[in-house]
Amino acid sequence: MSGEDAPAQQQNAVDQKQETKPTEEPKTEPPKTESPPAAAAEAAATPAATTEKVPEEETFTYRALVLTGYGGYDKVKLQVKKGKPTLKAGEVLVRVKACGLNFADLMARQGLYDRLPSPPVTPGMECSGVVEAVGEEVTDRKVGDKVMVLNRFGLWQEVAVVPANHTFLIPEGMSFEEAAALPVNYITAYMMLFDFGNLRPNQNVLVHAAAGGVGIAATQLCKTVKDVTVFGTASASKHETITQGGVTHAIDYRTKDYVEEVRKISPKGLDIILDPLGGSDTHKAYNLLKPMGKLITYGAANMLAGQKKNLLAVAKNWYHQFSIHTLSLIQGNKSVCGFHLGYLDGETELITEAMNTILDFYKEGKIKPRIDSTWHLEQVGDAMRKMQERNNIGKVILTTEPMPEEEKKEETKKEDKKEDKKKEDKKKDDKKKDDAKKEEKKDDKKKEEPKKEEKKEEENKEEPKKEEK
Amino acid sequence: MSGEDAPAQQQNAVDQKQETKPTEEPKTEPPKTESPPAAAAEAAATPAATTEKVPEEETFTYRALVLTGYGGYDKVKLQVKKGKPTLKAGEVLVRVKACGLNFADLMARQGLYDRLPSPPVTPGMECSGVVEAVGEEVTDRKVGDKVMVLNRFGLWQEVAVVPANHTFLIPEGMSFEEAAALPVNYITAYMMLFDFGNLRPNQNVLVHAAAGGVGIAATQLCKTVKDVTVFGTASASKHETITQGGVTHAIDYRTKDYVEEVRKISPKGLDIILDPLGGSDTHKAYNLLKPMGKLITYGAANMLAGQKKNLLAVAKNWYHQFSIHTLSLIQGNKSVCGFHLGYLDGETELITEAMNTILDFYKEGKIKPRIDSTWHLEQVGDAMRKMQERNNIGKVILTTEPMPEEEKKEETKKEDKKEDKKKEDKKKDDKKKDDAKKEEKKDDKKKEEPKKEEKKEEENKEEPKKEEK
């Protein structure tokens, strides 16, 4: 429930970190502010190649992403750790295949998330992989089990030690990427909608950031209930996708006032509002509630402005933070709830119950995680940027698959291009406004994306063979 | 939803009130502060006798309780109104048999409830009776239907005009008293537990004032769900009754710290807390919640101290009023809800849905309103006192049956006795503390109660015959 019963894996993670040789830190890279992946990639190149072939206790090494300090994307570095983690009773060792990125990871990087211990520390709340060893007293997991994992942190690495009851068996037909995309977003959406929200037929729901991980999960879960209307906010370019995914009314929050748009269609207001934004948007949401309506706030994305901590944004969010008197709640017949999965560790029973229902939905074909893009560990900075700049539709995934040499070269070229691009951007900055600039960056990136996606798919085809061995 | 769509019956009530002859106000009674019923009874004696036999439009009269100004129990007076109310489309005229008392009525008398228009006005949010006339466009109610009624106010009178969709058919075997006891308490408890609370098997619930109307309804409704644990607060003398009624752990809030008592049994805290108290108790409740717990606050009973508005109590309640930041909700994974049925008028669909489930529970024998005591309209002051001093176990009911002459004489004697009693009390007051005094008063009253209850039962036996005509 509290920090006291933090999972054993955390302590391991810390131990491992201390075993990391300082010489493995990237040295050759000149100080950069926005292009860490190349640096990290170089640092990790040699050890990565040897990881799979030398599993002996003493020479056991694995790659891990480490948050080295609070700040921009470059603060997450790829390091090589040495020494096979030991298992305590009730724990399992998971060979990680894919990891999910979450908003909390972005907040954590800026020092805005208190569930992550101080750097240096390995972030990552969810992953998928294969059980490689089981500790004593573990009865329901065995070596070779494909599992997805939910943990407070520490999963962005090739090997993770976690309590067995933090793992869930991956059902038939679910890929490792899907499995890494599922836990945080779907449990969050499920508990908000079905526990706090008590969603029932004919109700209407507002889903902010409907193209994000939680947004897509929430939309799909809403559709498991009869005649639920989903209002979803997203920039216009994402409307087609989210509408196909189940959003009834897509609203472009950049060009329209979402409150007005909702009122046009539902003058009485809304039954459930999922609010990841915080600040003044929480006030708007509260006023948009019907009697017996539920506002469920689960983040403060408005605090994230830019890649480093933006004190003005934080202060503004704090200043506008929603505070509510019971008298107002009584007279309005309203409910205000707060949710964050990161503060629910210890509630294994609740989480397992939710996960079982979610997996049933998956087996029945009612839900399916949508993967936006998959990135190598070396590309974690780009992956985070894509999410933070809201250029994703669905989940951003990291894969632990080693990066092919030719791709690394390409990556370096891209980094150079990005540098040029940045310079160009800076010039344009004087003429154009922020929003317009973002749109352009996004378009440029989109052109690059399909190539990456295709390559990824080829790699995926190979993967199942390896596991069958 | 708001005051704009207040039921038509309210306007009628106001019209009727204006037709009341000022000469019907009690004149002969010397000014008293605490014994209005006798006065009101005298005033109403003659018209009451003629009500049933002269139903012609012009000479139509009926008795009505009227709040004449904010203050003590004597501010609610029994008056006789003249002129048959006219029906608008969609309305029905109900011949009222029994009325329920609610905490909001007590708050209203002190001027602490903004859903009741300014005095003079007839209070009363619920009643039962027989449909005597139907307006145009009413298709689902007919003359002779036995109904229970839920309205914003205006039901403490012999005749009430209400929208047909504010009435619910009384099921077979339910007495008028039970029917008058049901709507407010059971809909309130139902919506709090099953809509906001999302009550599920194995959960635990704290019910404050577990011997009160909502408390008993909530306890019974909790028991419709498998393995729900109910913590109920009440003074020790009521423990046997509430335990028999379904409370798992009865806690004497007068002698024990209920927070400690709950923690002893459920160290992790509670899933649902129903809080009618407000002020500092809301803070305690919030801290007692488990992760994913729901605090549902539905009143500010702590504001009621004494029969007249107690500015200190009001100020204290205001000062301690619970206010919550979203950040705390997020980190705690908690929900804070406010509920008040009085602000839900207009939400006919929600209310009808809840009522249908409640009536199903009744038919299945899962719930049964518990009547504490039944009082004549003339005794409304005593009835309110009983409730406000927390001497009731279950619902306090008013009946519109005329008071038998011999009972009236007894009543007058009792009033005299009470005056003596009060003088005695004042003397004792110097020696004893407030609490002790209340306990004694309660005991005295209990001795008188059984007689009244027996008489009531005899009257009830006669009633069904009349209705069959």
Write the layout of secondary structure elements.
Two copies of one chain form a homodimer.
Chain A: H1 8-19, H2 36-50, E1 61-67, E2 76-82, E3 91-100, H3 103-109, E4 126-134, E5 146-150, E6 159-163, E7 167-169, H4 176-181, H5 183-196, E8 204-207, H6 213-222, E9 229-233, H7 239-244, E10 249-251, H8 258-265, E11 270-275, H9 280-288, E12 289-297, H10 311-319, E13 323-325, H11 326-332, E14 335-338, H12 348-363, E15 371-376, H13 380-388, E16 395-399, H14 405-429, H15 434-468
Parallel strand pairs in A: 8-9, 8-11, 9-10, 11-12, 12-14, 15-16
Antiparallel strand pairs in A: 1-2, 3-4, 3-6, 3-16, 4-5, 5-7
Organism (chains A, B): Oreochromis niloticus (Nile tilapia)
Domain Enoyl reductase (ER) (chains A, B): 71-398
Protein name (chains A, B): Vesicle amine transport 1
Largest sheet of chain A: 7 strands, mixed
CATH class type of the domain at 183-368 in chain A? Alpha Beta
Give the overall shape of chain A.
globular
Structural class of chain A: alpha/beta
CATH superfamily of the domain at 183-368 in chain A: NAD(P)-binding Rossmann-like Domain
**Largest interface: chains, residues each:** A-B, 40 and 40 residues
Distance between the termini of chain A: 40 Å
Output the number of helix runs of chain A. 15
Rg from alpha-carbon coordinates of chain A: 22 Å
CATH topology of the domain at 183-368 in chain A: Rossmann fold
Q: What's the total count of β strands of chain A?
A: 16
- Determine the mean pLDDT of chain A: 80
